[in-house]
Amino acid sequence: MSDHDRLARGFEAQRPRLHALAYRMLGSAAEAEDAVQEAWLRLGRAPEPGNLAGWLTTVVSRLCLDILRARRETPVEQIPETAARNAPEDEIVLAGEVGRALLVVLDRLAPAERIAFVLHDLFAVPFDAIGPILDRTPATAKKLASRARGRVRGTPAVPAADLARHQEVVTAFLAAARGGDLGTLLDVLAPEVVRHADPAALPPGVPAVLRGRADVARGTRTFAGRAAFAEPALIDGDAGLVLAPAGRLVGLLKIEVRAHRVVAYEVVAEPARLAASTIALLTGNAV
């Protein structure tokens, strides 16, 4: 077997892990594949590394860091309502496997924080190896990962017992909305429930405010298509939902729960309001 063939086989053995790593760093299957492919090209031009897995991890991580920094310098416009229809199928599938809430939270981290967190917390790379990737000391890399971890986990604004009950109701509400079953929705909504929605989240002519269980349930049924891309998250310290087709945030549902029923919810879609909201993972969201 030639040296090239041996390297190629070694690289292909690493490809799934490298793509998984790059996808969590970038949140884009296409960009992740580009980074992995660029690492292969660089491998062909470099002296054969003694530790192939470590060398490839370093190269892919640095490529992802450059991409993340470039994004910060050139902000991307808000993804429109049609994103769920336009997103490539592999993006939709991957976002569902990784967790849409996680991708949304990771997207809010600074580039170095995201790289440090993904490498250490998701792929168990030691800080001695992460530091050189970021051009930081291992101690600084550890601080970056710790800061990211705090933002990923968030800080609940309600007691743990209340949060657990709220999460249970939010999960039931999401299941009912996805099913589009009016009877199930009526069960989870309080009689006096109120729904507020940003105009950007509604078709023309649809009222921004709905009151009462029957009207809110009927209005929620129109949410069934988008509910496929919703996932529970900690929003401003309490249980709610992120709407994130392909892992890209397009909306939030801030949900008020009382006596095991939804008493109010607000659909947030204005970019400024989305940016001002605090989003973190709920217990049970996989990392």
Can you tell me the CATH superfamily of the largest domain?
A: PhyR, sigma-like (SL) domain
Element-level helix/strand string: HHHHHHHHHHHEEHHEEEEHE
Strand content: 5-15%
Sheet of most strands: 7 strands, mixed
Low-confidence stretches: 76-85
Give the strand tally: 7
The appropriate CATH architecture of the largest domain is Up-down Bundle
Strand order of the largest sheet: 2-1-6-5-4-3-7
Number of helices: 14
Could you say which structural class the secondary elements and strand pairing correspond to? alpha+beta
CATH class annotation of the largest domain? Mainly Alpha
- Give the count of structural domains: 2
* Fraction of residues in helix: 55-70%
User: What overall geometry do the principal axes of the alpha carbons give?
Assistant: elongated
Q: Calculate the mean pLDDT score and round it.
A: 91
> What gyration radius follows from the Cα positions, in whole Å?
21 Å
Protein name: Sigma-70 family RNA polymerase sigma factor
Family: Belongs to the sigma-70 factor family. ECF subfamily.
Keywords: Sigma factor, Transcription, Transcription regulation
Domain RNA polymerase sigma factor 70 region 4 type: 101-150
